[in-house]
């Protein structure tokens, strides 16, 4: 009799615990009707870098307070030689294109948020990869002493991994506004650059040296391509650094 009573007591307490656990929001209210998916557009690269950047994301809720998301799309940087048009004529870039892929795993704060994922404050771990390449034809202006042109090209790869803090607003159960306002990361940069041309001028020409100085200050690693006044060189450079991640995404929940 005592064993039966003990079994019944354990079953009763287990049922109470399960009910309380569900009330706290650790189980979906209805797995059939609960909207676990969000598809969205990342506005950050479009607004910051180039109007050609189109980056689409998808988030899937795995548990009431956890989810994962992926982003992918076209990636393009603005001109690296901006601000020197008084001295150089930057022709249209050739082979200018790139792409980006990223993903994160999110933990929504169950005690802080009134609703379950994908609504509310969250933190997460993320990784990303950016690839970008271009070639520019550069013609020197305003100097009758110098004849010719330069060709500068680069391939840029960036691997990043870090943590993020963000907030996602769900408006009227459908509209999503996702903001990542803090995302420190450790990044590895790999750059391959080429510099060629047929400049006909004295290597010690002050005007030519001034142009090199401008390019060196504008393009990271450019000075490594120009050694001893040479205008035909190439190089590969890799380095580690710190980066930040900022996202502004608008989406649709379904």
Indicate the topology:
Elements: H1 2-23, E1 37-42, H2 44-48, E2 55-63, E3 66-74, E4 88-90, E5 94-108, E6 120-140, E7 149-171, E8 175-182, E9 184-197, H3 206-218, E10 233-244, E11 247-253
Antiparallel strand pairs: 1-2, 1-11, 2-3, 3-5, 4-6, 5-6, 6-7, 7-8, 7-9, 8-11, 9-10
Report a brief summary of the structure.
The protein is an alpha+beta fold and 254 residues long.
Write down the Rg: 27 Å
Query: Do you know the CATH architecture of the largest domain?
Result: Beta Barrel
Strand content: over 45%
Helix content: 10-25%
Report the mean per-residue pLDDT as an integer: 76
Query: What characterizes the major β-sheet?
Result: 8 strands, antiparallel, barrel
- What structural class should be given to the helix and strand makeup? alpha+beta
The secondary-structure element order is HEHEEEEEEEEHEE
Please tell me the total number of domains: 2
């Amino acid at each position: 009799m005592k064993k039966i009573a003990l079994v019944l007591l354990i079953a009763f307490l287990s049922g109470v615990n399960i009910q309380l656990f569900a009330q706290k929001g650790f189980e979906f209210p209805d797995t059939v009707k609960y909207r676990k998916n969000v598809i969205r557009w990342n506005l950050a690269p479009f607004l910051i870098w180039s109007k050609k950047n189109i980056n689409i994301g998808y988030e899937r809720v795995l548990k009431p307070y956890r989810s994962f998301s992926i982003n992918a799309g076209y990636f393009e940087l603005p001109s690296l030689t901006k601000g020197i048009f008084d001295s150089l004529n930057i022709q249209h870039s050739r082979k200018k294109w790139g792409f980006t892929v990223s993903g994160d795993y999110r933990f929504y704060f169950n005690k802080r948020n009134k609703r379950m994922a994908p609504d509310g404050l969250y933190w997460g771990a993320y990784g990303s990869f950016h690839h970008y390449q271009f070639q520019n034809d550069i013609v020197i202006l305003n100097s009758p002493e110098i004849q010719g042109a330069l060709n500068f090209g680069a391939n840029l790869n960036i691997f990043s991994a870090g943590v993020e803090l963000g907030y996602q607003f769900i408006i009227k159960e459908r509209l999503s506004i996702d903001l990542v306002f803090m995302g420190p990361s450790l990044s590895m940069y790999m750059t391959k650059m080429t510099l060629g041309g047929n400049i006909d001028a004295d290597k010690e020409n002050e005007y030519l040296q001034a142009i090199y100085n401008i390019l060196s200050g504008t393009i990271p690693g450019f000075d490594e391509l120009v050694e001893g006044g040479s205008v035909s060189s190439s190089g590969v450079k890799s380095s580690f650094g710190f980066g930040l991640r900022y996202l502004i995404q608008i989406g649709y929940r379904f």
